[in-house]
Amino acid sequence: MKKLMLLTLVFFSFSCKKKNQEEDPITKQKWVLETAVVSPALNIKGEFITDYKKVEGDNGCLSNNFTLTFLTNGTYRLSSTGSLCDMVENGPNQKWRRLGEQIILGDNPKSEIICTVNSSTLTYTIVNTPGIVYSKVVYTFKAQ
Length: 144
Prior knowledge:
Helix content: under 10%
Shape: globular
Low-confidence stretches: 1-21
């Protein structure tokens, strides 16, 4: 009787198929920075600027094909073709995970970045509050 139950259990376990885990569509595209809008506007040499990409100048990382790439192993990479941007180090601690329409960057609740994904647009906001100065930058990426 025990052998029959064991045999039945073995056959039952082989008959159950594991569902193929679908690859998240976010990993199939590169996400290129389209806009970075800072508010309030920054006063740089007497000019008020809301385009945060201009703050670093034409050779800055944000102005030169700044890209987010999500890998299937749960990590993400940043890249840019700007001068010295290859010095940005990508590491194994750059984790991401999906929570509905949100992508969470990082694995520390105190420093996570929450991104919103709507079809081919990914957006996140960074708030800087160093000392008295307050600024907020909204980054918008397009899928390519």
